[in-house]
Write a structure and sequence with these properties.
It is a single chain. By secondary structure, the protein is α+β, with helices and mostly antiparallel strands. It has two domains: about 5-60, no CATH class; about 75-135 and about 175-235, no CATH class. Helix content is about 35%, strand content about 20%. The strands form three sheets. Strands 8-7-4-9 form a four-stranded mixed beta sheet. Strands 1-3-2 form a three-stranded antiparallel beta sheet. A hairpin with a 2-residue loop joins β7 and β8 (about 180-190). It is flat and about 85 Å long.
Length: about 240
């Protein structure tokens, strides 16, 4: 290829505009050649020096792709919530919705882990700062699993017990927090709790069925919701 000639793809990349914008400019190619990749369409080559001269022109700037600057969430939250704790009701609303979304199948594993990590930290903050007004212990019974190899009749794989996995129990704690006359309730597996809980008056109950519920938060706002919770916890530290 000639030293000072570039393809249409390279030209568009150099100008930092879309293919549609480039086509509307009617820039004349310096050469037309046979296309080695598609014989039915010619290959257009453009003068690189001429394209470089166009880069800063008003004509090109009209079409130039705007680079979206990432939001400075800490700065946004500092302005919106000059009193740090005034953000707490919104923070709890955010976790309320994110916790619901984490139960949806389309919530990725990484997203779910991030949400539950924030949930763990916020629950600890709320409990240790006196917002908790009740804790209930819920027991989830997980049934044994029949051996899939023998159908429960017994084989080498299950040591002739017919059982692939024994039944077991999972302990959850249901925390209820009172924030501005609104009660927020969240379950937390006992094994995930890293802070001390007063277990003296906890009532034990069977784990209720938890269904997926509507998420009252748009997907575009979920990132902001996670950023707000993280900011709130960081600011408190």
């Amino acid at each position: 290829m000639d030293k000072n000639l570039i393809t249409k793809t390279e030209t568009i990349k150099l100008l930092e505009i879309s293919a549609k914008s480039f086509n509307s400019l009617s820039i004349e190619p310096a050469m037309k050649k046979k296309n080695p990749h598609n014989k039915s369409l010619p290959m257009y080559l453009y003068d690189e020096a001429m394209i470089l001269n166009l880069c800063g022109s008003k004509e090109i700037l009209k079409y130039k792709k705007r680079k979206i600057q990432p939001k400075n969430y800490p700065e946004i939250f500092e302005k919106k919530y000059p009193n740090h704790k005034s953000a707490l009701p919104i923070v709890c609303d955010c976790l309320f919705n994110l916790n619901r979304y984490a139960k949806y199948e389309n919530c990725s594993k990484n997203n779910k882990n991030e949400i539950y990590s924030l949930k763990n930290e916020l629950i600890e903050y709320l409990y240790e700062n006196g917002y908790c007004n009740a804790v209930t212990e819920h027991i989830k019974e997980v049934s044994e699993k029949e051996c899939f190899n023998c159908g429960g009749y017994g084989c080498d794989r299950c040591d002739y017990t017919g059982i692939y996995r024994e039944g077991f129990k999972i302990i959850y704690y249901l925390f209820k927090f009172l924030i501005n006359d609104i009660i927020y309730s969240w379950h937390q597996p006992a094994k995930s709790i890293t802070f001390n809980i007063d277990l003296s008056n906890i009532e034990e109950q069977s784990m209720p069925t938890i269904d997926k519920k509507e998420v009252l938060l748009s997907k575009t706002k979920m990132k902001e919701a996670k950023e707000l919770i993280n900011w709130f916890l960081y600011k408190e530290i």
